[in-house]
Amino acid sequence: MVFSPMIISPRPRRLSESGSTHTLRTMHPQSPRVPASNTRIRPNSVSGVTRTRTSPVDPSRPIFQMHSRDNSDWYLFHDEDMSEESSAPPSPPLPELTYQPAPAVTIVHAHDSQPCDLPVPLQDAGKMPDISNRRLIVVLERASLEPCWVDTTGHHTARTQTASKCTLLNCDEHQKLLMRMGREISEARPDITHQCLLTLLDSPLNKAGLLQIYIHTSQRILIEVHPDVRIPRTFKRFSGLIVQLLQRGAILGASDSKVLLRIINGPLDAHLPHDAIKIALTGNAAPRRLQPYLRSLAPSRPIAIFVGAMARGPDNFAEHIVDGRLSISEHALSASVVCGKFCCALEDLWDIV
């Protein structure tokens, strides 16, 4: 009879009835139970007749079960080579572990050519920087806030008794008027100032009390904006508010009579701190990243930026006031986006959430 190849796999030891230790090895998970230690069963694969034969088994020798892959023939046998007293050669000792400190790692950003280090304060090493005077001052330059009188039909008229209302000159409603006056449509864009005010007043920097806003119109009118003012969300209501400001000179709060908007006199630099860092935003300079630039400034000095609130025109405003000019992007950005980027950069730098 030809048997198929045998495979032996270990199984846990068990204690036989006589008290000796036997080891059972099997491959097939559905193998029949091992018979008594003195019984040997050998099925006949040809006739199918099962023959049983009793033979003495030495209990001091481990018992193994071997069967074929098809589970057609199996029997018990003794392993002559296996002995619990045999000892394996000793393993070599493990090498001693020595602690070596990891090398220092310098983090370098992809957009910076220098390693990322903390900003060094410009004061003495033993003194903390004075941050009580830090704040951002935004001046919206050349804002087109020009009033015009219209009659009941919506046409421009002189200021007479028949005039019905006064509104802001804008390119959406007064295109024919601008053409008759020989002026460009880009000169009547009060919506730019409206968008900048909404962006600045809604910022966490303003809610933390670190923002001051001034509006310098194209008619050289200087307006001071209180941080607690709530600018109307719609342009129509904003237009009525600015017209009321230009007529009365100030806007007071309804509850506490706080001055929220007012027209101030004198030159602009007289209302700015004397130690403020004055920067004009332009698109003609080489662009620089805003965060590294702000870290290089003295943390104890306020920052005043001049942003053009016009749609078109040269950006040569405040030339006699500013200390330098800065471009923060290689693309043309709107005035509201520039205001938002400056607020976000200072919020991260000053840890304002």
From TrEMBL:
Keywords: Methyltransferase, Nucleus, Ribosome biogenesis, RNA-binding, rRNA processing, rRNA-binding, S-adenosyl-L-methionine, Transferase. It is found in: Nucleus, Nucleolus. GO terms for biological process: rRNA base methylation. Residues 1-65 are annotated as: Disordered. InterPro entries: Alpha/beta_knot_MTases, Rbsml_bgen_MeTrfase_EMG1/NEP1, tRNA_m1G_MTases_N. It comes from the Eukaryota. Pfam families: EMG1. Belongs to the class IV-like SAM-binding methyltransferase superfamily. RNA methyltransferase NEP1 family. PANTHER family: NEP1/MRA1 (PTHR12636), RIBOSOMAL RNA SMALL SUBUNIT METHYLTRANSFERASE NEP1 (PTHR12636:SF5). This is Ribosomal RNA small subunit methyltransferase NEP1. The lineage of its organism: Eukaryota, Fungi, Dikarya, Basidiomycota, Agaricomycotina.
